[in-house]
Amino acid sequence: KPRVLSGMQPSGDSLHLGNYLGALVNWVKTQDDHDAFFFIPDMHAITVTQDPAELRARTRKTAAQFIAGGIDLEKSTLFVQSQVPEHAQLAWVLNCITGFGEASRMTQFKDKSSKGGADAASVGLFTYPILMAADILLYQPQGVPVGDDQRQHVELARDLAKRFNHRFGETFTVPEAFIPKEGARIYDLQNPTSKMSKSAESPAGLINVLDEPKLIAKRIKSAVTDAGSVVAYDKAEKPGVSNLLDILAAVTGKHVPQLVEEFEGKMYGHLKVAVADAVVERLAPIRTRTLELLDDPAELDRLLLAGAAKAREVASKTVSDVYQKVGFLPPL
Ligand code: ATP
Ligand code: MG
User: Fold this and answer.
1) ipTM tops the 0.85 cut
2) In this predicted structure, what is the pLDDT of residue 69?
3) Within 6 Å (CB) of ligand 1, which residues are found?
4) Ligand 1 atom 30 nearest Cα
5) Nearest protein Cα to ligand 1, atom 18
6) Mean pLDDT, residues 155-179
7) What digits encode the pLDDT tens for the residues 271-287?
8) Which of 74, 265, 270, 287 sits in a 20 to 30 Å window from 49, CA-based?
9) Pairing of strands 143-145, 77-80
10) Which atom of ligand 1 is nearest to the CA of 198?
11) Model pTM?
């Protein structure tokens, strides 16, 4: 089975519907025909200031939602980055073969550090793409899924793999970047031309996996719709209605044209009720299971340590090989 690796930051208190339908649902599909590694990049998270207790809580919450949302620990390896020390170990070596100018060209650092003075951004944020290269190369995957914003970082990982192989002998698989199958793109319910995002100005357009069913239904019923009254799919003229149709399609597995047909002659209100019911039905069991998992943090921590142990079986081989090749003495 081809190996794939994906991560999602523990940055919010809950995944939102976009994270769930756009990313997690695809991960769950991936695990049947791939040797899948999923991780929570808490070491990347601290490249910007975090509240320690909150980071720990969010890491557990994110992991619990992954499991509740369908990541099967028998099929996949789910782990927390900081519990696999090989990420930091390999990152150091890769730091030492990356040019300062090369790292300086990474545009995400420029974007993220542009506000504030020279000391507002950490060196960790600067070397973030190198840690990301380590995340990838440790597991020797043939492919890495890339979104637009990560393209340049994956390119760096490929360059570093080739450079290391050239200098020290064949060590890393040079991963091919591939564009993942489109997950659903979900837009803000109050502002349906902007992507649903936890950084939205107001939570009113956001649906969180951990929201109470009542709140979810309320938010969907207050979604902004468009002029007119015909349920039709038209992203330019009817972004609100189209977003609701996309959500309903993603949640029910039906196709949009079929849904449009089903709602012929019906009003926007009918569509909202159908979307609210379907989303609640889909998310309620995930919420319940997440809360159960969080109710027993010792058990959750045990599951995550078991995932870390599985990840280390692969990662430690890579690091031993690398350490030997760069000239370090044999380890403990
Ligand atoms: P931020 O606002 O901080 O960027 P976010 O809400 O966009 O946060 P990310 O952590 O950037 O969430 O994304 C996590 C995953 O969820 C990524 O795979 C991303 O593509 C996916 N994702 C995020 N928002 C949406 C959305 N509205 N629709 C579909 N997928 C989404
Ligand atoms: Mg984002």
Assistant:
1) yes
2) 98
3) 8-9, 11, 16, 18-19, 22-23, 147, 183, 185-186, 195-199
4) 22
5) 23
6) 96
7) 999 999 999 999 999 99
8) 287
9) unpaired
10) 6
11) 0.94
Tokens of 159: 């360059």
Position 165, amino acid: N
pLDDT tens, residue by residue, 205-230: 999 999 999 999 999 999 999 988 99
- 9, 11, 19, 111: residue to mutate for ligand 1 pocket, most atoms within 8 A of CB: 19
pLDDT tens-digit map of 100-130:
999 999 988 888 888 777 778 999 999 999 9
